[in-house]
Amino acid sequence: MGLLLAIEASSRAYVVAVGTGSRPSAQCSGHREDPGFAGIGGLVTQVLADTDATFSNIGLIAVDVGPGGLSSIRSAVAYANGLAFSLGVPVFAIGSLELMAIAAQSEHRGPLLIVKRGQGGNVYAGLFTDGEKARFRCGPARTVVPELAVGLAAVHVAGGLADDVTSLLPGVMVTDTGIADASVLTLYEAARAAMATPELLIPAAIAINEASPEFHQAEANRI
Which domains does the chain have, with CATH numbers? Predict the structure, then answer.
């Protein structure tokens, strides 16, 4: 399929990686606040130069669609979609909560609760349990965390808020996975795996935010 370009923007920095093998051959990161930061385009140009590749070598673009910083995620998704359209290549889109769950599942077994701080005191949360469809919520932590964790005796937590989760779940054994953010390496590996499933490769990605339907399924089920 050619070169795989991965773009991760839900953490504190933009990170891009490229490669054709099981691991990226080059990656580059930049903080949005740094003087002279050239944006996602500058990072992509740099990693392509580092691998003696050109834009025409790209065969698939993977992008973390959030949730994360609203402007950062929108910029990353817009760049990925625009580049994919201009090159005529597909996009692999995956959320930051899923990426953290994938990373945690490599070392931890059992229910995974991914909790990521949002805006206005809210959190984005997802419960990942083996053999079951992931459940997502967005809202005050004191509401969504107990709702997702009801009935659990133990849970592994990622997203950097393990202490908060522990205080909200008395009687539940909470284990901190140490995973605070999504990783471009996990994004790259997930995209590589998705190549075997063509229906996971789409023409364009859509950014995830607090209004996205996956965070409001509970409300829809009650209507």
Answer: 3-95+182-209 (3.30.420.40), 97-176 (3.30.420.40)
